[in-house]
Design goal:
Elements (H helix, E strand, L loop, with lengths): L5 E5 L4 E6 L4 E5 L20 H17 L12 H16 L1 H14 L3 H14 L2 H11 L4 H7 L6 H11 L6 H13 L4 H10 L8 H5 L6 H13 L3 H26 L3 H12 L27
Antiparallel strand pairs: 1-2, 2-3
Helix pairs in contact: 1-11, 1-12, 2-5, 3-4, 3-7, 7-8, 7-12, 8-11, 8-12
Bound molecules: fe (ii) ion (FE2) (2 copies).
Length: 303
């Protein structure tokens, strides 16, 4: 009988994620003593398998968000918050194809055409997603081009910078971990999350193009599955780097979302109006259109 694959990656000074092909995942605290032999102290060197690789990747995201679990903002979504989320969605997707192509050409130089081909395919699939966010803003009566030209939400800036830097590295494999983190979280959104956003939009307005395509209903679910299979096929050293970056990106994402979501409605409105140099049509009504239920995670995100 073939042995099931076990994979592990050290993600913090003393925590490793261990995942079995059977689906078991756990966080292992390294013993740190020479007396006790620790099987997970040395980096893994074996092959990957989809069943264990997904455990490492999702384990990394869970660990990243666990740090802020108690402080995780869950405000009732409003139209103002949604506009800010769409601006963030624009900024996290506008440079994605160019960045991914840059990383792809580096992998071609490095003699890794299979990684280059995967990244080029991703670049093609992500092309035009920034325009979905702009269309949504326009549908809401907001001059999207002017707004995004003048405003990058503070919590989104570190994410954009991280992705730019990762794709420009000499060995840019980490960009796959970043993308996985954002796509995996987007793919958690379900039909009812989209319905809730529709409910706060003005009657007859469809401003959920970006959200739909970055949810379980759109292409994200497929992107996630394809990425898991691809990462599982990589050598151990690459899988380790991808998982470590998934963890680092989830820390940035968690902090960034919290930073934006903890802002008051008045503060968000002030930032938007300052960037636009004019009043928004929602200034006085958005507080009336709050959800009755607790809202989903951030309304929009992209990579
Ligand atoms: Fe996208
Ligand atoms: Fe995607």
């Amino acid at each position: 009988m073939e042995r099931l694959v076990t994979e592990w990656v050290n993600v913090t000074r003393d925590i490793s994620i261990v995942a079995r092909e059977s689906g078991e995942v756990w966080f292992h605290t390294l013993s740190g003593t020479k007396e006790i032999a620790d099987p997970f102290e040395a980096p893994m060197t074996g092959v990957g398998a989809a069943g264990s690789t997904v455990g490492l990747l999702d384990g990394a995201i869970n660990l990243g968000f666990a740090g802020i679990e108690k402080r995780l903002a869950r405000p009732d979504p409003t139209i103002i918050g949604y506009i800010v989320a769409l601006v963030g969605a624009y900024h996290t997707s506008v440079d994605t194809p160019r960045n991914l192509r840059r990383a792809a050409s580096r992998f071609n130089e490095l003699g890794r055409p299979e990684v280059a081909a995967y990244l080029e395919e991703r670049a093609r699939e992500e092309t035009g997603h920034d325009r979905l966010a702009l269309k949504d803003l326009r549908a809401l009566g907001v001059p999207g081009e002017r707004l995004v030209a003048n405003f990058v939400p503070e919590g989104i800036k570190p994410l954009c910078k991280r992705f730019d830097n990762l794709c420009a590295e000499d060995y840019p494999i980490g960009c796959i971990g970043y993308s996985y983190c954002l796509e995996r979280i987007a793919a958690l959104k379900q039909e009812d999350d989209i319905a809730k956003v529709r409910a706060i939009c003005p009657d007859g307005v469809d401003a959920t193009r970006f959200l739909r395509s970055h949810s379980s209903l759109g292409s994200e679910a497929n992107h996630v599955t394809e990425t898991i299979d691809f990462v599982a096929s990589l050598p151990a050293k690459d899988r380790i780097k991808v998982v470590q970056e998934t963890y680092q990106s989830s820390l940035l994402l968690a902090e960034g979302y919290n930073h934006e979501l903890l802002k008051s409605e008045a503060k968000m409105l002030e930032e938007l109006q300052q960037a636009l140099g004019e009043e928004l049509p929602y200034g006085h009504t958005s507080s009336l259109s709050r959800f009755q239920e607790r809202g989903p995670q951030p309304a929009a995100c992209a990579k």
